Amino acid sequence: MTQNPKFVILLGPPAAGKGTQATRLSEHLNLPHVASGDLFRYNLKNETELGLQAKAYMDRGALVPDDITIAMVLDRLSRPDCAAGALLDGFPRTLAQAAALDKALAEKGVAINGVLNIIVPDEVLVERVTGRRLCRTCGEPYHIKFNPPKVAGICDKDGGELYQRDDDNETTVQNRLKVYWEQTSPLIGYYQNTGVLVDIDGNQDIDAVTEALKAAVINL
Ligand code: ADP
Ligand code: ADP
Predict the structure, then answer these.
(1) Per the domain annotation, does 194 fall within a domain?
(2) Is residue 112 within 8 Å of residue 138, measured between CB atoms?
């Protein structure tokens, strides 16, 4: 029996733990992990036209314009591996993006199954951002204090070198938080209205958050 496609969104402010949890949850749900930030960073690294367009916005912690972002993510979702659905991380981030996603899914006769809203206080987020390190090869996030790799500077999964994102500094994170509250948090009400929103306490240890997320997706 073929299952209906499943589309699940991880919503939350910068450094709430979306990427960390997405790796685990995408395996659990057997869905591809589609992260708009990762797609932008891939384009930046490869110096594509899209990467060049996005760079200035990312550097100052602003959102990349909706038309560019929507086209990039919908293109990714049209690939064959997303026929069974996807776990979306970092998209949508504006009401216009949410509407465009709803429209694209409706055209395929599907809809969002669940939105997992990871809640973490702003002051905790600042410390998570500044201590974050990522694998250059696979993008896996670590934290120098809260989730250190077994060997300093090296990814546990594939031995890749860890680096710090250019935008993971105190100044940019303040802007990213402001942008989150102004432009992304209205999505909480948007998805509450369609009955798909589930609040998750993201201010607990990583395994406890994973358990809460797994419990939330049981009936999706
Ligand atoms: P975070 O760890 O802050 O959640 P991401 O890796 O998701 O960061 O995103 C990094 C940057 O990429 C954002 O600050 C923004 O400039 C850009 N970006 C990512 N997703 C989107 C989106 N859905 N809409 C607009 N810009 C985005
Ligand atoms: P996002 O994708 O939402 O921006 P990440 O998954 O990259 O967030 O997590 C941000 C930082 O916080 C990373 O350094 C990560 O190791 C760390 N982190 C994630 N979840 C937790 C948690 N529950 N407790 C402490 N630190 C965490």
Answers:
(1) no
(2) no
Is 207 within a domain? yes
Percentage of the chain beyond pLDDT 70 is 99
Are 177 and 19 spatial neighbours (Cβ–Cβ below 8 Å)?
Answer: no
| Angular region, 12: left φ>0, alpha ψ -120 to 50, beta rest | left
**Number of structural domains the chain divides into:** 1
Ligand 1 neighbour 63 (Cβ under 6 A): yes
Which pLDDT belongs to residue 1? Answer: 42
Q: Do the domain assignments include residue 25? A: yes
Is position 83 within any domain? yes
Mutation test of ligand 2: which of 18, 20, 127 has the most ligand atoms closer than 8 Å to its C-beta? 20
Whole-angstrom Cα distance, residue 215 to residue 196?
A: 15
40 CB under 6 A from ligand 1?
yes
Per-residue DSSP letters for 161-192?
BEE--TT-SHHHHHHHHHHIIIIITHHHHHHH
Q: CATH number of the domain at 76, please.
A: 3.40.50.300
Pocket of ligand 2 (CB under 6 A): 12, 14-20, 128, 131-132, 141-143, 146-147, 205-206, 209
pTM, full prediction? 0.96
| 38 Cα nearest atom in ligand 1 | 6
Q: Give the pLDDT band (50/70/90) at residue 219.
A: confident
How much is the average pLDDT of 158-184?
A: 96
Domain coverage including residue 58: 6-120+203-211
**Mode of pairing for the β-strands spanning 114-119 and 33-35:** unpaired
